[in-house]
């Protein structure tokens, strides 16, 4: 009480008018210091029943702080195009989306690895994907690849584009239904920030890796080697093989008679690749 009496008459009024900047659904917003999460919800979206602060769902009221990123979500409500990115990436670590939404990632091969890498990156909010494959979806693909029975017979580029657009309709996809060779690597993947090698045959993998690293020095490439069978998932790792080249897998288990390709291990390796891409886009070593 003594301290309050010693304050200038307008001090408390000044304190109540202090402002801070937060982000609401990815947009900067100035609010009063001491604003609570529930007060913000009641002002901007009273029907919201999922409240996320800095990537984490909060169930109790909290006092917001400078720089907090708040997303208000109403379950079951279809977001507008303007809202979509904020809601898709609401659970991201703060600061991730601003970087990945400007990135372009190339993916060579859309089988078990490439299809799952593409979907993971689309869910992450990568702004643009360049997808290249010349094959069609066939029944044996469904044991490990991100396709559906009603897509059998479709070009993989077309089927995967269709699937990704159902997940992230605002992503930019450039799809090429063509076989990759030494002559078209530079044209197909010009402008990528990170390249993903997801081809099937060893000679194709070697050709793409050699050509890409030679044609695009300084652009990292994430490849895969060794993911067949049902060996322990923890054997699959990500290694820097040389400057600009990262390889995911166990480096041993190739597909052969009595050792096929199955969804669990292929998926582990694909997500190693996707996570390596994400870390590279964020300026981190995989």
From TrEMBL:
<dbReference type="InterPro" id="IPR045886">
    <property type="entry name" value="ThiF/MoeB/HesA"/>
</dbReference>
<protein>
    <submittedName>
        <fullName>Sulfur carrier protein adenylyltransferase ThiF</fullName>
    </submittedName>
</protein>
<dbReference type="GO" id="GO:0008641">
    <property type="term" value="F:ubiquitin-like modifier activating enzyme activity"/>
</dbReference>
<dbReference type="Pfam" id="PF00899">
    <property type="entry name" value="ThiF"/>
</dbReference>
<dbReference type="GO" id="GO:0016779">
    <property type="term" value="F:nucleotidyltransferase activity"/>
</dbReference>
<dbReference type="Pfam" id="PF14453">
    <property type="entry name" value="ThiS-like"/>
</dbReference>
<feature type="domain" description="ThiS-like ubiquitin">
    <location>
        <begin position="20"/>
        <end position="76"/>
    </location>
</feature>
<dbReference type="InterPro" id="IPR012729">
    <property type="entry name" value="ThiF_fam2"/>
</dbReference>
<feature type="domain" description="THIF-type NAD/FAD binding fold">
    <location>
        <begin position="97"/>
        <end position="284"/>
    </location>
</feature>
<dbReference type="InterPro" id="IPR035985">
    <property type="entry name" value="Ubiquitin-activating_enz"/>
</dbReference>
<dbReference type="InterPro" id="IPR032726">
    <property type="entry name" value="ThiS-like_dom"/>
</dbReference>
<dbReference type="GO" id="GO:0061504">
    <property type="term" value="P:cyclic threonylcarbamoyladenosine biosynthetic process"/>
</dbReference>
<dbReference type="GO" id="GO:0061503">
    <property type="term" value="F:tRNA threonylcarbamoyladenosine dehydratase"/>
</dbReference>
<dbReference type="InterPro" id="IPR000594">
    <property type="entry name" value="ThiF_NAD_FAD-bd"/>
</dbReference>
<keyword id="KW-0808">Transferase</keyword>
<keyword id="KW-0548">Nucleotidyltransferase</keyword>
């Amino acid at each position: 009480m003594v301290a309050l009496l010693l304050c200038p008459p307008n001090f408390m009024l000044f304190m109540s008018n202090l402002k801070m900047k937060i982000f609401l659904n990815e947009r900067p917003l100035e609010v009063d210091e001491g604003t609570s999460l529930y007060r913000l919800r009641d002002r901007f979206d009273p029907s919201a029943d999922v409240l996320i602060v800095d990537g984490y769902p909060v169930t109790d009221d909290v006092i917001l702080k400078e720089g907090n990123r708040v997303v208000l979500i109403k379950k079951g409500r279809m977001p507008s195009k303007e809202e979509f990115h904020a809601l898709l990436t609401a659970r991201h670590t703060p600061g991730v989306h601003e970087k990945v939404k400007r990135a372009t990632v190339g993916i060579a091969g859309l089988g078990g690895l490439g299809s799952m890498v593409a979907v993971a990156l689309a869910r992450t909010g990568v702004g643009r994907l360049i997808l290249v494959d010349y094959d069609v979806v066939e029944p044996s693909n469904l044991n490990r690849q991100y396709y559906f029975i009603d897509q059998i017979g479709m070009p993989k580029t077309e089927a995967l584009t269709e699937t990704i657009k159902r997940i992230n309709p605002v992503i930019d996809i450039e799809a090429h239904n063509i076989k990759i060779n030494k002559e078209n690597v530079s044209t197909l993947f010009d402008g990528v920030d990170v390249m993903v090698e997801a081809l099937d045959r060893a000679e194709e993998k070697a050709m793409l890796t050699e050509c890409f690293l030679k044609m695009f020095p300084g652009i990292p490439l994430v490849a895969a080697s060794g993911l067949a069978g049902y060996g322990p998932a923890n054997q699959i790792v990500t290694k820097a093989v040389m400057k600009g080249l990262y390889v995911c897998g166990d480096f041993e288990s190739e597909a052969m008679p009595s050792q096929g390709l199955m969804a669990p291990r292929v998926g582990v390796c694909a997500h190693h690749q996707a996570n390596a891409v994400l870390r590279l886009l964020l300026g981190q070593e995989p």
